[in-house]
Amino acid sequence: MRSRALVLPVQGATAAQLSDTYTQARAGGAAHEALDIMAPRGTPVLAVEEGRVAKLFLSKSGGITLYQFDPDRHYAYYYAHLDSYADGVAEGANLRKGQVIGYVGSTGNASPDAPHLHFAIFRLGPERQWWRGTPLNPYLVWRDARP
Which residues participate in catalysis according to the annotation? Predict the structure, then answer.
């Protein structure tokens, strides 16, 4: 994944600000399997690379979410707890690397006092299902960029 040179998905965030939250336990003992990037509510969320919007979804836990496939449909990127989508973002839309796709929020089961982006990466199976894949630790993508 590091060779893909993904953009950090929160505008203004730096690799030095990231903490590895991938293995943290969550409600019911489930593994987190994502990276939480804290930011003020309304901070732009960026597409980490080119690709297509696979699904816009409102879930109880993730709130306002967006699933993006990479250009080759080998990976899915999951953006959750969004405050809202950016204008023009729709299922099937092509995204440019660095394009604003939404805004940091605390929808779903996120604390209203801790707006953040919950960001996950999945390696897709042959079925290319937006909701299922092998989770990968997003922190490792940017770990080597830390000072």
Answer: 116
